[in-house]
Amino acid sequence: MIKEVSFSYSVFSSIDDLSQDDKILMKESDRALQQAYAKYSGFNVGAALYLDNGKMMSANNQENMALPSSLCAERVLLYYCKANFPTLGVKKIAISVKSSIEIIDKPISPCGSCRQVMLEYERMQESNIEVLLKGQTGEVYLIKSVSDLLPLAFNTNAINRL
Ligand code: THU
């Protein structure tokens, strides 16, 4: 038997075509990436999200000379939000990127670890987290659920029995 996984997502030709709320979120993500501490990769990532109560939060990637100690923008932001507002869900997260090497003219999807973290929060809150993605220029993608980005994700009840 062969099973197939597919999903659809919206493509906007630029940030100008987004709804007002999405435009604000994307601009906040663009603003946040300017403050990234990314001197080792030269790859700045910004993330901004709306919490259930409408509050907007943002963060960026934080690197370290001990390279594996670095952390992606998405997880810096989500862990901060969950540490400080544990009861609030996340409605939508916008992610934008910028490189010191070349102009990024299309969205870049979050890494697998960030997808796994976003997915667990999505499952926990029992409602979709939408994902907006943007490069420095070009199209913007809107994905309806983190689960679309991580088919066959790690998920089991066979732990947490300590
Ligand atoms: N990075 C993120 O912030 N988010 C991702 O989803 C992938 C990568 C950061 C980590 C590192 O600081 C830089 O981008 C290059 O990998």
CATH fold-level assignment: Cytidine Deaminase, domain 2
Strand content: 15-25%
Order of helices and strands: EHEEHEHEEH
Distance between termini? Answer: 37 Å
Commentary on this structure:
- There is one protein chain.
- With 162 residues, this protein is of the alpha+beta class.
- The protein has a single domain, classed as 3-Layer(aba) Sandwich (Cytidine Deaminase, domain 2).
- The protein has 4 helices and 6 strands, in the order E-H-E-E-H-E-H-E-E-H.
- The chain has helices at residues 20-33, 73-84, 112-125, 146-149; strands at 10-12, 43-51, 56-60, 90-99, 130-134, 140-143.
- A 6-stranded mixed β-sheet has the order 1-6-5-4-2-3.
- The termini are far apart.
- The protein binds tetrahydrodeoxyuridine.
- Residues 38, 41, 43, 45, 61, 63, 70, 72-74, 110-111, 114 line the site of tetrahydrodeoxyuridine.
- The site of tetrahydrodeoxyuridine has 13 residues, from strand 2 and helix 2.
Summarize the entry for a quick read.
The protein is an alpha+beta fold. Helices cover 27% and strands 22% of the residues.
